[in-house]
Structures are given as C-alpha cells and as structure tokens.
Amino acid sequence: MMATPGDVLLVRLSAIGDVVHTLPVAAALKRRGWRVSWIVEPAARPLLEGNPAVTQVVPAPPARAWRLAAVRSAAAELRRTRREAALDLQGLWKSAGWARLAGAGRAIGFAPRWRREPLSSVLLTEQAMLGPEAVHVIDKNLALLRTVGISALGLREFPLPPTQAMAAQVAERLQAEAVGDGYVVLNPGGGWASKLWPAEFFGRVAIGLRDRGLASLVSWGPGEEKLADRVVAASEGAARRAFPTTLLEYVELARRARLVVAADTGPLHLACAAGAPVVGIFGPTDPARNGPWAPADLTVRRRPLCSPCHRRRCPVHEGVMRAIPPEEVLKAIDRRLDAGTPIGVAV
User: Fold this and answer.
1) Do domains 7-148 and 164-339 have the same CATH topology?
2) In the CATH hierarchy, which fold is given to the domain comprising 7-148?
C-alpha cells in the first residue's frame, strides 16, 4: 500500500539495543521524505535527541515510574501533531497503547504471532504479517515499513546525534589516563543476567589480550561498577575500569577501540552501529536474529535446547554462558583482529 509521505510516529520505548535496531527504520523513512516522531523512555533518549533522522522526540514515562498524569501529558503532546500512521515496533501492550493514544490515522503493528504480547494486537487498527526473508530483527523492523509503501530490507544505516564534542572529551580522557590506540573494550554488563558472560572469564580474556600487546578497558553502565571491578580483579592487572561515559561518549570510545567484546546487550549493538569491530558472545538468543551484521564481525555461542529463548529466567538455558571458555573467545578475537576494520558501515 503506497502512502504519501507525511508525519509518522515510531513507538519503540526501550531498551538500548532495541532502539539501535530500530534506527534504520527512521533512516528509511527520512530518505522517503517522511517526518519522524519517536516516543521513547528516558534511558534511550540521548540516541534520538538531535538525531538527524528524527524530527520530534516525545518522552514516555518509564514503566517503573508510571503515573497517570505523565501518561496524559505525553498523550496530549502526541496529539498536537496529526500523523498519518503510528508504527508499533515493540509488540507489547504498552507500545500498542501508545500507538493508539497518538490519534494517528493508522495504528500499525505486527500480527499476534510476531508480538511479545500477542493479545496486544487488538489495540491496533492494522496488523501486518512477517515473511521468512526478515531474519534479523533489524529487517523485521524494516518489514513493517511495507505498510506505508517502503521496501527497505537490508538497510544498515544507523543515524545518531552529532558526537564531535563527545569525541573530543573521550580523546582527552584517554590521553589523560595514558591509554594508547591499541585498546579493547570489554563490556560485561547488560540487562538480562541469563545473557551475560561471567566476569572472571572477561578477566581471563584481558590477560590473553595483554599477552597480545593490547590493553583492556572495562566499560560499565549505571549500577555496574562492582561488576566492572570484578573483571579488573580477575585480570591480574591486565584490565582497568573505563571512565564513566554517556551513551554517545561510549559510541566514541567504541569507535576508537581495536575491538569491542560483549554479550547480546545494548553496548554490543551500539558498538555495531558505531562501526566498531566486535566479537559477540551469545547463548539463549540467536545471533542470526540479534547479532552483529558486519560481515567481518564474529560471534561465539553455546546453543541451549530452548533456543532461541527470550525469557529472562529459564531453567533450560540457565548457566549456558558458562559453557563458553575464554580460550574460545580469544580465538575469535584473533580472527576478528586479523580481518581488520569493517568497511562501509553506515553511521
């Protein structure tokens, strides 16, 4: 169905990695002349405010601090602009609710089979089917654009706000802490405990990187300081905790790194969007769906019987990440470093 370009709302409220995987949708819409609004919770707002592909950012109250007054305020802001469509790219009750509350002419999302909360599709005015060609979650998101006449599967363009100021700040901090160009970012944290690789294994990787002449910086987010310190303690002096970074400062830290090593978490996907070389460590989730997309990037995985599994707690995949030895990750690191820096990654 063809649609004349106009105003469209993207509903992708959280999390960091999921917002990153939705950025190509905004890029594709902008290319076709659409004006993109995006409703998002606070954690991911820095990726959208000032983003060249996003005309308006509407703050959504976080789920953990839900207040009726905040919901009414956000809904009122949404309704100030008449939009042709609202696209629910999250597949939850709350995202479908925002798509409907926006008052757009069309509230579009995927049919129940492809939603995290299938019954939430009743709030939509249109339900789309997903074909087998959309394997990666990025292409699943892009497939929803067919409902407004855009075919963009395969697009890997990740618009981000300008980061020149952050680049200068990161360069200054690296110089102040005497960190040379040959460093690797190790990110042990993330949202789901079942997807994380043990801190002591990251420490052993740092020791292996030191043997290869590479320094290790352990990145961390809010509340992850102790986790980063556990990696440092296990590294026998081979790693140091990185200085605190905002999301966009982390982008610049990753861009300067020889490599980023992380599990299936927001920092991994943000590093991929920044064009950094990566090695991903996967267990319950499928790297074909959630993993790095640059051809040279690598993943190391142990596949549990429940795979692909997106449950935060699951007795079947519990402990599967511990089955991935540091030596195997180091072999992948060697292969990825030998492959060099990816070419042609759009940022």
Assistant:
1) yes
2) Rossmann fold (3.40.50)
CA dihedral 299, 304, 307, 309 (to 10 degrees): -100
| pTM score | 0.94
Spatial contact of 203 and 240, defined as CB atoms under 8 Å apart: no
CA distance 130 to 141: 10
Give the chain's length: 347
**Per-residue tens of pLDDT for the chain, all 347 residues:** 556 899 999 999 998 999 999 999 999 999 999 999 999 999 999 999 999 999 999 999 987 767 888 889 999 999 999 999 999 999 999 999 999 999 999 999 999 999 999 999 999 999 999 999 999 999 999 999 999 999 999 999 999 999 999 999 999 999 999 898 889 999 999 877 889 999 999 999 999 999 999 999 999 999 999 999 999 999 999 999 999 999 999 999 999 999 999 999 999 999 999 999 999 999 999 999 999 999 999 999 999 888 787 777 888 778 889 999 999 999 999 999 998 754 333 22
Domain range 164-339, CATH class: alpha beta
Tell me the two tokens of residue 310.
């997106």
